[in-house]
Amino acid sequence: MFPSFAVTVDVVILTISDGDLCVLLVRRGGDPYRDHWALPGGFKLPDETLDQAAKRELLEETGVKAPKHLDQLKAYGDPGRDPRSNVVTVAYLAVVPELGGIRAGGDADRAQLFPVRQAIQRRFELAFDHRDILRDALQRVERDLESSHLATAFVGQTFTLSELRAVYERVWDTELDAANFRRSLLASDASFVESTGTTAAPGPEGGRPPEMFRATDSWKNYGSPVKRSRRRDPRDRR
Amino acid sequence: MFPSFAVTVDVVILTISDGDLCVLLVRRGGDPYRDHWALPGGFKLPDETLDQAAKRELLEETGVKAPKHLDQLKAYGDPGRDPRSNVVTVAYLAVVPELGGIRAGGDADRAQLFPVRQAIQRRFELAFDHRDILRDALQRVERDLESSHLATAFVGQTFTLSELRAVYERVWDTELDAANFRRSLLASDASFVESTGTTAAPGPEGGRPPEMFRATDSWKNYGSPVKRSRRRDPRDRR
DNA sequence: GCAAAAGTGTTGGTGTTACACCCATGG
DNA sequence: CCATGGGTGTAACACCAACACTTTTGC
To answer: Is there a contact between B75 and A85 if contact means CB atoms under 8 Å apart?
Structure first.
C-alpha cells in the first residue's frame, strides 16, 4: 500500500590515533561495492530502535562495544543511492577513546583506521554516498566539540589536560594555548573535568609529571568553556 | 528479503506570530490518531529525495510554498511509534517569516498555529511521537540561532533591527540590549545584514523611524555575532 | 657520576576585545 | 516613545614570560 523501503544504519566511528583524527572503515566483502571501503552498518530490524540498531551493527561489524558517545547524525535517502533497491540510511556518529580489539565481522572482511581528512579527499573511493556522510560527520564533531563535553569521549577514564587539549587541536586542526586551556577548563563553573589528585608518568621525552583528571557528570548543557579562536585569520584555515 | 519499512517526512514549521514562537499543526482527518493535532507530513516516494518529500508535503498539507529555511532535524524509528506498521519518519525543521494563506489539504482538515512552548506542555495530546519531535525542534532552533544566520528566516525580505531582535528574544525567551545588538550585528565582519538606506514608518506607539535592513549572502559560516548571554543567572532560566 | 640542556606542565602577568549596563540624543 | 549612538567597567582570552619537574646529553 505504501512505498516500501529498506532502512539501514551506518556508523561513523571517530577516534584520535597516532596524533590524527581517524575514522574506522570496513572493506565490503559482498556486492554492491565489493572491495570498496565503507562505513560499518547494516539493516535495521523492525523490533529495535534506531539507536539499538546502530549499537548492534557497531558490535557485529567492528567489535566496538559501548562507545562513550553515540549520536544520530542525519538520514540519507536520495533515490538511487543504493543500486539494489530503495534504501534510506540513518547515519550515526560514534566517538571512542581507543579501539581495543578491532575485528572485522559480518559482511566486512577487514576493518582499518584512516585519517578522516585524507578519507574525505579523493584518495580512494568510498561505497555509496559515504563520502558525503563522512563530510557531515566531520562538520558535526567540529561543531559539537565547541558546545558540549564531547571532547572527553575521545580520551580514557582519566587523562591529562595535554591529552584533552590534543583532542581539540586535532579535531579543529589548530593550536591552543596550554595556559589558557587549563584556566578555561578549571576556572569555569561550567567545567566538566576535575583533578584526581594524582600525577601521571612523564612522556617518553621527559617533562614535568602532569596532573591526572577525570570527566565529571555535573556538566549542565552550558557549552564547552573551550572555544575556537575568534581570530579569523585566513592563513590558519587549511 | 530485507525488513520493509514505510518512510515518512514530518515538518515542524516555526514562525513568530503575535509576539510568540509558534508551530503550525494540522488536525488529522483519518486514522490513526483521527482528530488529533499533528505535524504536517506524509509518505516519501521512491523517486524523490527526502528534501523534496518535505517540500511537497509542506505544500500539499499546509499551502506553505518555498520556506526560507528547511533543514533536516532527525529520524525517528522506534518500534510501535505508528500502530499501522513499521514506519520510520524523518523530521524537518522549516522556518518561515509569515504564513500567507494557510490552508488545510490532503489528510488534514484544519491547520492552525500554536505557541510552541504551550504545545510541548501537556495542554493537549499530539499524534504519534510528535511531542518529542517538537521538543527536539525547539532545542535545535535555539541552538542554530546562535551559530548561523537562521534568525533572518523568521523575518521578511526587509526588516528592522527591532524585528530581528524580537526573533532572538522570543526564541530564547530572553531580553537583549538594543544598543549591543545593533553594534554586534553591524560592526562584525561576520555580519549577515546590511542597511537598505531607507527607513520604515514608526510602530503604532510612535518612536523614531527605524532603519530598514536586508539579509546579505556574504555570510561565511562564522556563526552569529549575536550570542546568548553568558550570565548564568538561574532565575532567568525557565 | 654530575652538571647542563632540553622537553613538558603549571602559574603569573599584560594588553586587547567583547559586551553588560547605563545614559544621551534624534526623529 | 522608540531607534540610534556613545561611554564605562568587567570579564574573557591571546600572547608572553617565568618557574617546576622530568629525561637526555656532554664531559
So the answer is: no
